[in-house]
Amino acid sequence: MSMKLPFFKNKQTELHEDLESDNIPDHVAIIMDGNGRWAKKRGLPRIAGHKEGINSVNKVVRAANQYNVKVLTLYAFSTENWKRPKSEIEFLMKLPKEFLHIYLPELMENNVRIDTIGDFDALPQHTKKAVQYAKDKTKNNNGLLLNFALNYGSRLEIMRAIKQIMSDIDCSKISIDSLDEKIFSEYLYTQGLSDPDLLIRTSGEQRLSNFLLWQLAYTEFWFTDVLWPDFDEVIFKEALYEYQQRKRRYGGI
Ligand code: FPP
């Protein structure tokens, strides 16, 4: 005879049960780190950690949706990640397709829109095709924006913006005098998006790794030792709870 077991809530969930619904970060950015270490701890190849990381992406998307986060920007592949072994890069480039194959129906159901930041054109054809399909399919969804940073590097983004601005000044599209922070932001991949309110980095590393250098000027940072494949709704909630304890002053008092 089967018996229903009592449902024990995770201690942390209970502790952070009451998130203030009017103080949810609009934009959360995450540096998903620690896939390789997660795999190594289990005697598995590094790619096993990346594969498992897909499930954490889905968990965090679900949670972000539930809490009414507007934008979730995930650092999936940096311009520096091309330095990795060819076989690992090939595997990483297949992940978007794999993720979308499993989760696109659920993303559609939950009204999630998919977009990317970074040098999209330089991605392999098969990666572009899978991601472009998802972008097109979800383009009319108006729920959470799931924004993948794919082949993204902040310095490259800033250089690209400067070149475009200089060219627009050259052909009198804009004037030097009119150039301000707001206009500069329009030249970045994140054009039209609010800056992240909260940045999460997993795996215990505490650096930015060329991620959103301009956009993170006033962002709250939250670091956890949890490795990305172990990241889940409970830890995400903990991050939101910690965010809600912060006083954001933007340089004021
Ligand atoms: C960093 O861990 C992680 C990455 C470079 C890849 C991130 C990709 C995913 C989490 C998969 C999901 C992606 C999509 C597009 C759905 P690491 O390899 O640097 O880990 P380590 O520091 O422990 O070696």
Instruction: Give the integer mean of the pLDDT values.
Output: 94
Strand order of the largest sheet: 3-4-2-1-5-6
Query: How many structural domains can be distinguished in the coordinates?
Result: 1
Supply the helix-strand structural class: alpha/beta
Number of strands: 6
- Ligands, ions, cofactors: farnesyl diphosphate
Distance between the termini: 63 Å
Shape: globular
Largest sheet: 6 strands, parallel
* CATH architecture call: 3-Layer(aba) Sandwich
Number of helices: 8
Strand content of the residues, in percent?
5-15%
Pick out the low-confidence regions.
Answer: 1-9
The CATH topology is given as Undecaprenyl pyrophosphate synthetase
Residues in helix, %: 40-55%
InterPro entries: UPP_synth-like, UPP_synth-like_CS, UPP_synth-like_sf
EC number: 2.5.1.-
Subunit structure: Homodimer.
GO molecular function: ditrans,polycis-undecaprenyl-diphosphate synthase [(2E,6E)-farnesyl-diphosphate specific] activity; magnesium ion binding; manganese ion binding
